[in-house]
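[audit] Reproducing an earlier prediction to check determinism. Same input, same settings, fresh worker. If the tokens differ from the archived copy the diff job will pick it up downstream; this log only records the rerun itself.
[audit] input (267 residues):
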Amino acid sequence: MSNPVFFTAAGTLDGLGTGDTFVLDGAEARHAVTVRRLEIGEAVDIADGAGKRLTGTVAGSGQGTLTVLASAVQEEGRPAVRLVLVQALAKGDRDELAVETATELGIDAVVPWQAERSIVRWKGDRAAKAHAKWQSVATAAAKQARRAWIPEVRAAVDGSGLAAAVAAADLAIILHEDAKRPLRDVLEKWRGGISGEDTDAGREVLLIVGPEGGISPREVTKLSDVGAVTALLGHHVLRSSTAGPAAVVLASDILGRWYEDPSISGR
């Protein structure tokens, strides 16, 4: 079984190496000590959410602290092609479910989208709280998946903001039930077009998912005008909470992300 992961703030693992000790505190330490009841000698990972991972064993615990003796400190690189889920706001907790599942499957960033047909509206204090909730969901899912990277939940966008993001992306795909081309064909053709090129700079692929009522024809036209392409995910029409994660699975396979070397380098 893989080691449980606990998160610390970005930068707090800097300068550490094999044989060093790290003291985890705060809510994560309390969870490790009082909920997980970790004992001395048990193996754990401490990650900073920005790619750095300390692997070690519990050397001691106190009131709200956990001391870990490092056996390795490694830095995990990001994939050459990064996947960004553009998730339309949806009623209930369907959008949060999409964020949770997509994070476990390896999404690199999430963009909340106020689509024309979104019933939910993020305004004022509610917007800040909802954004914080999405980030909390992504953090918890990254912890569950033993990830060293926590996906960033970017600022919410409206139609104009999404159009700007599409124009700046390397590839933007609208998942749409009326599309003529399968998602697999779109991704394979695009991957073939960048084959042999330098991808170290980090290319981004946007996967755009509409709300329960679907993406309006006006939105499809506006996004297509700035470079987005429509793609068919499959024969069935999926819920807004399912479409994104399903696309992440297919894209990760076609783009070689499932088995990509994370470029781990020891420190």
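[audit] rerun output stored. Observation attached for the diff report: Residues 124-144 form the longest helix (21 residues).
[audit] end
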